[in-house]
Amino acid sequence: MQGTYNLIIVGAGMAGLCAAAEAAAQGAAVLVLEKEADFGGSSLLSGRYMAFAGTDLQQKEGIDDQSQFLIEDMLAVGEGKNEAALVEAYGDHQLETYEWLLSKGVQFHKVQAVSGHSVPRGHTITPKQAITALYEAAAASGTVTFKTAATVKRLRKDEAERVSQVVFEYGGKLETATAENGVLLTSGGFSKSEELLENFAPQLVGAIRIGGKGNVGDGIKLASEQGAWLRDFPYLKGTYGFHPTADGPRKSQALVFYKGAIIINKFAERFVNESISYKLIGTEALVQPEKITYQIWDQTIMNEGVSGDALYDFEKLLSLGLIEKADSLETLAAIIQVPAETLKTTVDQYNDDIQNGGDSKFGRTTLTHHFGTPTPIENAPFYAMRTTVAMLATYAGVSVDKSARVLNAFNEPIAGLYAAGEIAGGFHGAGYMTGSSLGKAAIFGRIAVQAALEKQVVL
């Protein structure tokens, strides 16, 4: 079967659906191919944050923020290894994209401090609601065709060496569709591919695998066959903060350390500055003895939990039996089987340092990045959660420019080929700032469509 469209989108997570909604608004004929039975992919497993600056939610909270501050934070967290042009494009388009998402029915609930930000900038969504709203916005146009359980097998170039054909399996048959303006890959990463993880990230062998089941790197392979260059694989890191049971049906996670908890190993010793990116913490956690680590906190910090929040609903995790509680540090140590005397010494030293304005071991002075003030861990009861590293998203992939055009090894655009979302490399660099993954998916999903339809090409 042969069909011709203005644009073919491969993958229907946040990036793919934002692209579909943007293309629909421009009246383009679009085919969206999703190999899973449902839409959403890893976007449904996200921490629910999107990074935006200067929004109405921030203004209501009296938070002074702007795009330049966001750009500076991203570059700082990425340790200068991220492509500055991509980060600047994010900053240039982030506020308009936030307002565009609102116009499409995406609901933002609140804003709070999250990893890597100098001010509260994590705008929370309910992923299912956002995905549904974007799908409905695209579908309502009548110009977008969705096909689920459709697996893309190959991309093909035409006589002009432009990527224009997509070969896919649908309903047990091979079909071919043609894109007049371009093919956009929004197919995610490879967090569920043991083959690619073994080759590109052997240091993550101890991380549990919890990404979207379709994230096996097929989009990266499709692009590579067409000559795509790859970026950021040396910086692959897992995400710290998950309970070990997160490799099951419930993805239980808590970032209590960003509210003031400390992190210890099996010897009850701290090993990291808890305010840094949870990606960097994950790297340190994977080299601890037996990869065993715990978050430790008190009732004061427990009271900072946020009901219903995917990362900060501590009471819910306690009710599920995933958090241990004790009236003393000695009893808590016995429960989690770490040396009681060492735990007491570790907490006492940390408390002394915090009360004296510093952290003599690791230099912690804030809760997260440049925001917040740590408090002593001294008010019973005390709490602990065994915490591990998960491979949720890979944040490395094909090289793109700031118009989301896929680049070859000579930094030249591959005609007709675009990429947005997790599949695209070059954006995060050596670190990861919370909310920037969903943020870049939305922003560059739209930019890719604008470039492909020749409405806007950022040169």
Automatic annotation (TrEMBL):
Keywords: FAD, Flavoprotein, Oxidoreductase
Cofactor(s) it depends on: FAD
Organism: Planococcus shixiaomingii
Source superkingdom: Bacteria
UniProt keyword Glycoprotein, yes or no: no
Pfam families xrefs: FAD_binding_2 (PF00890)
FAD-dependent oxidoreductase 2 FAD-binding domain segment(s): 7-438
Name of protein: FAD-dependent oxidoreductase
